[in-house]
Design a protein that fits this description.
There is one protein chain. By secondary structure, this protein is mainly alpha-helical. The chain folds into two domains: 1-49, Arc Repressor Mutant, subunit A, CATH 1.10.10.60; 57-214, Tetracycline Repressor, domain 2. Helix content is 75%, strand content 5%. The chain is built from ten helices and two strands. The chain has helices spanning 3-25, 32-39, 43-49, 53-75, 82-99, 101-111, 115-121, 124-151, 159-179, 198-214, and strands spanning 182-187, 190-194. A two-stranded antiparallel ribbon has the order 1-2.
Length: 217
């Protein structure tokens, strides 16, 4: 087997092991040593294929984003009204994140980094793949927003900006649903913690997405 093919195969093994550990334990508990053991290699070999932990996490997120794009595509019905399409893909995003909480952790971990810091730690080729994965997923939202603008139902000046807002907003909502921490004041000065009903949270976000697209919020 040529060296390039062996290198690509080893890189895929590392990514597959990272993804498996993410899904099993979550991002915070997945360590480089654990990934190396899962592949049966020394941790030093991982750094031959990835510049560091951030780059490995970024490439793992690319895999999640590819799957997310397929989920959004499957949920969308181009023949439906734009508002219904937006509700459907919003629900699909939330269902995807709920089923794969490690995707939410991974996405948020990278979003917490400033762009210039991330560029210093992640190679240009990986940043390109990450950007492509993001834009491919967001394109489903953009197309729905553009259809709504064309029909006069939506009033959106910059569909790409609003799609990015939806993305980060939905990640925050998924974090709330995963943590199951909703705080309210039960009695004056006495806070209490409630469970978070996922279906209710989903309905709120669907309504908020449509309202923002219509220019009502």
């Amino acid at each position: 087997m040529p060296v390039s093919e062996r290198r690509a195969e080893r890189k895929k093994e590392i990514l597959d092991a990272t993804r498996a550990l993410f899904d099993e334990r979550g991002v915070r508990d997945a360590q480089i040593d654990d990934i190396a053991r899962a592949v049966g290699i020394n941790r030093a070999i991982i750094y031959r294929h990835f510049s560091g932990k951030e780059e490995l996490f970024a490439m793992t997120l690319v895999g999640y984003l590819d799957e997310l794009s397929l989920a959004l595509e499957a949920a969308d019905d181009p023949t439906a009204a734009p508002a219904d399409r937006l509700r459907s893909i919003t629900a699909a995003f939330l269902d995807f994140g709920s089923a794969l909480p490690a995707f939410v952790d991974c996405a948020q971990a990278l979003l917490r980094r400033r762009g210039d810091e991330l560029m210093d730690e992640v190679s240009e080729s990986v940043m390109f793949k990450l950007g492509r994965g993001m834009s491919t997923s967001l394109a489903h939202v953009v197309h729905v927003l553009e259809a709504g603008v064309a029909s006069g139902e939506f009033h959106v000046r910059d569909p790409y900006l609003l799609a990015n807002i939806f993305y980060t907003q939905a990640l925050g909502v998924l974090n709330l649903a995963t943590l199951q921490l909703s705080v309210r004041e039960q009695n004056p000065g006495l806070p209490t913690v409630d469970a978070v009903p996922f279906d209710e949270v989903k309905a709120y976000l669907q309504r908020a997405a449509v309202a923002m697209a219509r220019g009502d919020a």
